[in-house]
Design a protein that fits this description.
Elements: E1 2-8, E2 11-18, E3 25-31, H1 39-50, E4 54-58, H2 75-88, H3 92-108, E5 112-121, H4 123-134, E6 140-143, E7 162-167, H5 175-185, E8 191-196, H6 213-231
Parallel strand pairs: 3-4, 3-5, 5-6, 6-7, 7-8
Antiparallel strand pairs: 1-2, 2-4
Length: about 230
C-alpha cells in the first residue's frame, strides 16, 4: 500500500496503490469522490486488495492541486470539495484520460492478470459510467452516479458488464433523472441497475452521515459478485 506516480498524456500524477498479499490478481481502478484520494478511498483500495485485486485510485485533481485529502466532516471541507469538483469539470476529458492511463498501468503491472475493472463513487460513479461507455474496462460499477442525464444515449455503447447503484432519496439525482437512467439502462442487457429505497446519496460511505449498513452491504455484495464473475 503506497503512493506512486503514473505517466499520463500531459504529465505525471499521483495514485494510491494497494496490492494483494499474493502480489498477483486482476486490476481494479477505484475512482475518487469529490474529496480527493483521502482515507476513505485508501481504505477502499486496501479492502479490494484483501479481496485479491491490484487496486489503484488516481488523483484526479492534480492539475488544480495535487494530493488533496478532504473529509465529509466539516462545512469547510465540503465547500472546498465542491470548489475542486467545479474546477475539475471543465477538464473532465483530461480526467478520463488519466483514468485510462491508470487502467493501462494496471493491465501491464507486474503480477496483473491483464483484466481490469473500475468502481467509482459519487463523482467517481459518474466517471465509471463514462469508462463503461468509452473504455476497454472489463467491468464497470458506479455508486450513486449523478449528472449523467445528458449522456444517457451513450449507454448503448456499453459492451461489457456494468452495474450502477442508485439511492432513491438522492437529492443530486432527482426522481426524473432516476426514471431517465432506468429507461436508458433497461435497453442494454449488459447493464444492471439497482435502486435502494429510503437511502440517500453516499449510503455506502462507511462513517458518513448517510451511511446505511444494510444497503451498503447489499450493494457491496453485488459489486463483489460482478467483479469476481467478470475479472476471474
Amino acid at each position: 500500500m503506497t503512493d506512486i506516480s503514473i505517466e499520463g498524456s500531459d504529465g505525471s500524477f499521483g495514485s494510491y496503490l494497494a496490492i494483494p498479499e499474493s502480489g498477483t490478481g486482476p486490476g481494479l481502478l477505484v475512482i475518487q469522490e469529490i474529496f480527493g484520494v483521502n482515507q476513505v478511498m485508501r481504505d477502499l483500495c486496501d479492502n479490494f486488495a484483501k479481496q485479491g485485486y491490484i487496486a489503484a485510485c488516481p488523483d484526479l485533481f492534480w492539475r488544480i492541486e495535487p494530493g488533496i485529502q478532504l473529509t465529509d466532516k466539516t462545512e469547510e471541507d465540503w465547500g472546498k470539495a465542491f470548489e475542486y469538483m467545479n474546477k475539475f469539470l471543465p477538464d473532465f476529458e483530461k480526467g478520463v484520460a488519466d483514468l485510462q492511463a491508470t487502467m493501462s498501468f494496471l493491465r501491464s503491472y507486474q503480477g496483473s492478470t491483464g483484466k481490469v475493472g473500475c468502481v467509482g463513487f459519487c463523482l467517481g460513479g459518474s466517471l465509471a459510467y463514462t469508462m463503461a461507455c468509452s473504455s476497454d474496462s472489463d467491468a464497470s460499477i458506479g455508486y450513486y452516479p449523478v449528472q449523467i442525464d445528458d449522456h444517457l444515449p451513450y449507454a448503448e455503447y456499453i459492451k461489457k458488464p456494468a452495474m450502477f447503484h442508485i439511492a432513491e432519496k438522492d437529492d443530486f439525482c432527482p426522481p426524473e433523472s432516476q426514471t431517465a437512467i432506468a429507461q436508458a439502462f433497461e435497453r442494454n442487457q449488459k447493464i444492471t441497475l439497482h435502486s435502494y429505497p429510503g437511502v440517500d446519496h453516499a449510503f455506502a460511505r462507511l462513517g458518513g452521515g448517510n451511511y446505511n449498513q444494510a444497503a451498503a452491504e447489499l450493494a457491496d455484495g453485488r459489486t463483489s459478485a460482478l467483479l469476481k464473475s467478470a475479472l476471474s
